[in-house]
Write a structure and sequence with these properties.
The protein has 294 residues and is α/β, with parallel strands linked by helices. It has one domain (2-223, 247-288): NAD(P)-binding Rossmann-like Domain (Rossmann fold, 3-Layer(aba) Sandwich), CATH 3.40.50. The protein contains 10 helices and 14 strands. Helix 8 (223-234) packs across helix 10. The longest helix is centred in the N-terminal third of the chain and has 22 residues, at 78-99.
Amino acid sequence: MKLYVLGCGGMLGDAVYKHFTKEGHDVLATDLYRSEPWLSAVDVREYHSMHYDMSEFNPDVIVNLAALTDLEYCEGNVSESVHTNAGGSGNCALLASKFDIPYVYISTAGIFDGKEERYDDFAVPNPMCVYGKTKYWGELAAQSTPKHIVLRCGWQMGSGPKDKKFVHKIWKQIKAGATELNVVKDKQGTPTYVKDFTLQIAKMIDEHAYGVYNAVGGGEASRYDVAVELVRLLGLNVKVNEVPSSFWDKEYFAPRPASEKLITAKLNAEGLNIMRTWQESLAEYVTEYKEFFS
């Protein structure tokens, strides 16, 4: 299989590239910047550059991982966020239709408002912030092409040095010498290991499972719960303090839903769910990246 992957330079892209190349597939991996020798520079906002790539490469599937994901940055850069997260998805959808191939779009639990405890695949999105809105618009763009696979991911973790999310931020504090961590308890979600999520992407492509799906790790957690489990797995004497979200208001001012818990109803019903619990995944993550977590 030949995969054209946009935005492949991040933590999920690292997992996607490693898995599909290991399985013997041909991957044209692109990103805005060439941070790895196996990446080529392509901007998801530039339709004609992508069209040229696809005409030359003739892929069997297009996978869009490209997105601006920093919520605070998106709040201050609305136009760029719209063009990247929504417009980039529109470009991918147009090209998928033109070349008659499946389009895999990665969405987020952040498209919901957090007023409900949990959200299944059929819940009506109501995003609170610029990031959530642009990612939801990206979903709608993806659905304009018949062979779309929209996967809503939870709180991502994985890929060691390329991990820029919560686990990495906690580890940075510990590595800098912190003996106490202040972590919010009032934000709930479904942690998701990028390695498992990649296997779920592969499963959906193999099964031609088109549509919109929640795809998250098993179990639920607060940010506090994840931090406590990470410290336990690392065997460190670090105290984790519960704090309200308001404690971090200055650093994280973008509106965030209180609950981003997703239910994998469709994956379960269709026998497609291959995701492990977040505790199992975090344990494997820490073991696999021993050098990173030392």
